[in-house]
Specification:
- The complex is a heterodimer.
- Chain A is α+β, with helices and mostly antiparallel strands.
- Chain A has one domain.
- Helices cover 27% and strands 38% of the residues of chain A.
- In chain A, the strands form 2 sheets. Chain A has a 5-stranded mixed β-barrel. A two-stranded antiparallel sheet of chain A has the order 10-11.
- In chain A, a hairpin with a 6-residue loop joins strand 4 and strand 5.
- In chain A, helix 4 runs antiparallel to helix 5 and helix 5 crosses helix 6.
- The longest helix of chain A has 19 residues.
- In chain A, 26% of the residues are buried.
- The longest helix of chain B is centred in the N-terminal third of the chain and has 17 residues.
- In chain B, helix 3 packs antiparallel against helix 4.
- Chain B has a 5-stranded mixed sheet with strand order 2-8-7-4-5. A 5-stranded mixed sheet of chain B has the order 24-46-45-26-43. Chain B has a 5-stranded mixed sheet with strand order 34-39-40-37-38, with no helix packed on it.
- In chain B, a hairpin with a 5-residue loop joins strand 14 and strand 15.
- The chains are: A alpha+beta, B mainly beta.
- Chains A and B meet through helix 1, helix 3 and strand 1 of A and helix 1, strand 29, strand 30 and strand 39 of B.
- Strand 1 of chain A pairs antiparallel with strand 39 of chain B, so a sheet runs across the interface.
Chain lengths: 246, 785
């Protein structure tokens, strides 16, 4: 026998379900999708077919990870599946509709960020054209800004081939390169002239800032900074920024 | 256990049903927003061939710029159609411009309608509407305008006692209001008494003159044994006043110098009143014990900090509750104002006139104003003022008055007239036509970009086509593409950057989806469901001579080619980056660098490596070699002719080196979003060949709904004898129109212009709004002798 309380509850269920279904357009992100399709710009690029084998990785992230891209128009696209090919210095995007990897047109990209699972904050790379000292041309790279002030510290997350080995695949001999991360750090002056930090040591910094050598030495000693790692370099550049800004 | 599951399921479903939708508030039009538009025009009466100059103000409670509309739509329409359509971009919530009134416009009332796209969600009732009268300069019989305004039928009359009751033996204030098509402005009304004795005797006990809106108040002391009637000049009808009651009271309210004088005059048999209250939005803001009868008190609005807006003044009786109630609009808003000074009251012909606007007393940071100096005959006193409009909006918010009715009624009144009129809505809120909250979400807010919307349907069955790609191009010297997809109702939207303004736009259904015969329907933002309503120009019957003179003046100006309205030259803002699909073509080829070639086929063969164009069975096929992999790209390349997309190479093969100046070859397998291009070839011609070569695109939908550029009114300068225009007649009826006047707090600004050859009075009319949202309205008369 159906109890009255069950009838009431059944009516609640039916009524609430009706309300829910009426709002389905709002609840499943319909309007959000519509607005994204209206306002969000598109990424452009060539089909990406780079499939070379290697010991080591061509990519900063092997897996497709979500990230954002800011175009030179200032518009941004969000939550796209991205990979950064550090060997080619190219951003690769995979469309969630076509599942086709695309090498994004570099000159249309101002900046991109990727959410690496091991990092709290997304890693941000900017498309920069820097005038490297003692070079005629300017360098156009994706660089990670590690520090920004009057002077900036940027890292080119380069991957280079350090060797190769021969192997046989189905009777065919192929050469498999060995890849290693070889980041290059640049200190960029306010006028956009960039100096490569050749080695991670204090002397590299003295060479870049000869006129501030003694102040820099004093400051580094005071703060007990030995340039042995990237984070040491960041701290050191922040100190130098204060010194040169005075 | 069963009960437990039942409750759990019910709770879950109820929660789902009642939970707010997850839609971003940024775009939600469902959230209540008070966006409205007010348009100040230089005048209300025009001769066809002149310019209607305007300044549009966006009124929005929200201070966040990114939540305000940035585009406004103005339409000028008559009974038959929309004769002019204008889209303006808003800058600091304002926009200025002009509409040319074509020589062929026929004489009659027109309506200027203004709105934002977002306002469409609230229904057309909230659109700004302003009637304007346009007379064709060749019309020899403008008197026909009067035929509509004179209705042989007498008006309806409504009587409303100030306190709600018409009471014997005490001084009552009675509102008399006319309605109907009868032109009641400035007509006399007499209140006549007729004794109930057998001897017929009619006396005049009161007299008043109706204002331009057709109502007035009258004071009288009704006696028992008499019947009272009203007679209106121009009709023979007698209107019986309501019967006076023996018990009750008169609640009289007057204001002077921001002080309210409230009187309670009870009749002999009236309830004992012991309390006088003033309510504002259900809050008690004033309370006084009534200890004598009759009772009178002065309430200092400033000192007591009575809030601005609609108040209800109530007389309460012991054991009776509210006995009488009187709505009253408190317009006191501090001393914040702008003052106007002229250097003289009287000027000669072609003499410099200086107006000084002083913002010393402004409480807000600044005020944005528009100033017109025109012949008074061109102003319709029955039109809505800015202050009146603002008051009407407040009344719709506070008391739920219907927006359209509130604006058309209250918007035209000054605050004294409004307070007189409010007697009619005395206490009985059931008579108020409350706004129905009828929001839709179909119209997007254009807070950053102009939005073009539309629908795609099957041309044969009219069924909406879902998931159909629509491409938007603009003719240009670069390849540009915007695209979107229709939803399950066949709708689409494009958000356009300023790259697309001021140009033709072409919409195409992507040929790859081309199984049906799709038809693109672009939403017309200028189509209105609300029928056109004829306006009324106050005292038009007295303006016929003025209209005829104005026609002559415009004819003279046309003969001399005199035009004072010019496009405003502003420093060009950088235009947004175009929606390109690649940063740089793989190859760009200029045909001038080669020997002339007679067809596209020859060009492909001789100067473009890797592009193969072959005739096959009466048509052409083409393919490209991939720039990366050196093999043929799959499929045919996509062509752009002068920036317009086409997949049909056959229409382009006739183009030769004389017509083509540039080719861009982008021979890659290329993606732009989800759109795939097996190579792209851009062909750019010297003379817009796309107009003829692609004219066949039946699926094309082109709109030229471009933005209008702001204009300014340029007046002659007579400082130097041989200055510009000195030898020509200066018959300006608009001496000055300034739409970009910004007054800062504590500062003043002087405007100057020269008078013309027409003598007589000119009305200076200043309207605007302060940064705090307070409307500004100033009027003054100057004389040209």
């Amino acid at each position: 026998m159906i109890k009255p309380i069950n009838i009431v509850l059944l009516m609640y269920i039916v009524f609430s379900t009706i309300i829910f279904s009426v709002n389905i357009y709002a609840k499943d992100g319909y309007y959000e999708k519509m607005f994204l399709s209206v306002f969000e710009p598109r990424l452009s690029g060539e089909i990406y077919t780079f499939t070379m084998r290697a010991d080591g990785s061509y990519y900063m992230n092997e897996n497709w990870l979500k990230g954002d891209v800011v175009l030179i128009t200032g518009e941004a696209v969000h939550d796209k599946l991205l990979k950064y090919n550090t060997y080619l210095d190219e951003l690769i995007w995979m469309s969630s509709k076509t599942f086709q990897p695309v090498k994004v047109d570099k000159k249309l990209v101002k900046e991109f960020s990727i959410n690496l699972p091991e990092m709290r904050e997304p890693v941000v790379f900017r498309n920069v054209s820097i005038d490297v000292a003692f070079r005629d041309d300017s360098l156009n790279i994706f660089a990670q800004k590690l520090y920004e002030g009057n002077i900036s510290l940027m890292a080119q997350r380069r991957v280079v081939k350090t060797g190769e080995r021969l192997t046989s695949v189905r009777g065919t001999h192929i050469s498999v390169p060995r890849l290693e991360a070889d980041p290059v750090f640049y200190i960029v002056m306010p006028d956009n002239e960039a100096f490569e930090v050749g080695r991670l040591n204090r002397r590299a910094l003295y060479r870049i800032f000869p006129e501030y050598r003694s102040e820099i030495r004093t400051a580094l000693r005071r703060e007990n900074i030995w340039i042995r790692s990237e984070s040491d370099l960041v701290r050191a550049v922040a100190l130098i920024d204060e010194i040169v800004s005075q | 256990m069963k009960l437990y599951w039942n409750i759990l399921i019910a709770f879950v479903c109820l929660s789902l049903g009642l939970s707010d939708d997850l839609f971003s508030e940024k775009f939600s039009s469902r959230q209540v927003h008070n966006e409205n538009v007010y348009v100040h025009t230089d005048r209300d009466l025009y001769i066809a061939g002149e310019h209607l100059q305007f300044k549009a103000y966006l009124l929005n409670d929200n201070n966040e710029e990114n939540l305000k509309s940035k585009f406004i739509y103005l339409a000028l329409r008559n009974d038959d159609n929309v004769v002019e359509r204008v889209i303006m971009q808003l800058d600091r919530s304002c926009s200025r411009g002009s509409i040319y009134l074509h020589d062929t416009l026929s004489t009659g009332y027109y309506e200027l309608v203004a709105h934002t796209n977002r306002m469409r969600n609230r229904g057309e009732d909230v659109f700004f509407r302003k009637p304007v009268l346009i007379v064709n300069r060749f019309d020899e019989n403008p008197e026909m305008l009067l035929e509509d305004s004179v209705d042989p039928d007498a008006p309806e009359l409504i009587f409303a006692p100030e306190s709600g009751s018409f009471v014997e033996g005490i001084d009552n204030t009675l509102l008399i209001k006319t309605s109907g098509d009868f032109d009641a402005a400035l007509r006399d009304v007499w209140v006549l008494s007729k004794s109930n004795d057998t001897i017929e005797r009619i006396d005049t006990v009161a007299h008043t003159i109706l204002n331009v809106h057709g109502f007035a108040t009258v004071s009288m002391v009704p006696d028992s044994g008499y019947a009272y009637y009203a007679a209106v000049d121009g009709t023979d009808k007698l209107y019986e006043l309501p019967e006076a009651r023996k018990s009750g009271l008169a609640l009289k309210v007057n204001e002077e110098n921001n002080k309210l004088k409230v009187e309670i005059i009870p009749a002999a048999e009236s309830p004992v009143i012991d309390r006088l209250k003033i309510m504002h939005k259900d809050n008690l803001v004033f309370d006084e014990i009534v200890y004598e009868k009759p009772f009178s008190t002065i309430i200092d609005l400033k000192e007591l900090n009575i809030p601005k807006g609609l108040l209800f003044i109530e007389a309460e009786g012991r054991g009776w509750g509210t006995v009488a109630k009187r709505p009253w609009y408190n317009d006191y808003n501090g001393n914040s104002k702008i003052t106007l000074e002229t250097d003289k009251n009287q000027y000669g012909k072609r003499e410099k006139v200086r107006l000084t606007l002083d913002g010393t007393l402004l409480e807000d940071d600044n005020a944005i104003l528009s100033v017109s100096v025109v012949k008074p005959g061109m102003i319709n006193k029955q039109n809505v003022s800015f202050e009146g409009y603002n008051r009407a909006l407040e009344l719709t918010k506070v008391s739920g008055f219907n927006h359209k009715e509130a604006v058309s009624l209250f918007g035209k009144m000054d605050v004294e007239e409004l307070n007189e009129y409010l007697i009619i809505n005395n206490a009985d809120q059931d008579n108020v036509n409350h706004d129905k909250q009828n929001f839709s979400q179909n119209y997007l807010i254009e807070n950053e970009r102009l939005i073009i919307s539309g629908r795609v349907v099957d041309g044969k069955t009219n069924v909406p086509l879902q998931e159909t790609r629509i491409i938007l191009n603009k003719p240009d010297t670069i390849i540009n593409v915007l695209y979107t997809q229709t939803d399950d109702m066949g709708r689409f939207h494009f958000a356009l950057s300023d790259y697309f303004y001021f140009d033709r736009l072409y919409f195409f259904v992507d040929a790859q989806n081309d199984e049906k015969e799709p038809v693109i329907e672009i939403s017309d933002k200028f189509s209105y469901e609300t029928p056109f309503e004829n306006g009324r120009f106050a005292l038009l019957r007295d303006k016929m001579d003025f209209i005829k003179r104005s026609q002559d003046i415009v004819r003279v100006n046309k003969a001399y080619g005199i035009n004072h309205v010019e496009e405003l030259i502003k420093e060009a803002k950088p235009v947004s980056y175009p929606p390109v699909i690649f940063s740089e073509a793989n190859r760009t080829i200029y045909t001038d660098n080669y020997a002339p070639l007679d067809s596209l086929h020859e060009i492909s063969r001789e100067i473009v490596y890797g592009w193969q164009l072959r005739g096959r069975a009466g048509s052409y096929v083409s393919r490209l070699i991939c720039g990366t992999e050196r093999k043929w790209l799959p499929g045919s390349p996509v062509y752009f002719l002068d920036g317009i997309i086409t997949y049909d190479i056959d229409k382009l093969t006739h183009l030769d080196s004389k017509k083509i100046y540039k080719l861009q070859i982008h021979n890659y397998q290329w993606y732009h979003g989800e759109m795939f291009f097996p190579g792209i070839i851009g062909i750019f011609t010297r003379n817009y060949e796309y107009l003829t070569a692609l004219a066949h695109r039946t699926r094309t939908s082109m709109i030229k709904e471009t933005l209008k550029k702001p204009t300014e009114y340029v007046t002659p300068e007579y400082g130097q004898r041989n200055g510009d225009g000195f030898q020509r007649p200066d018959l300006r009826q608009v001496l000055y129109w300034g739409a970009d006047i910004d007054i800062e707090k504590g500062r003043s600004k002087t405007l100057s212009f020269y008078s013309g050859d027409l003598t007589g009075e000119y009305l200076i009319k200043i309207q605007g709004i302060t940064s705090g949202g307070t409307p500004v309205s100033i009027s003054e008369i100057i004389n040209i002798k």
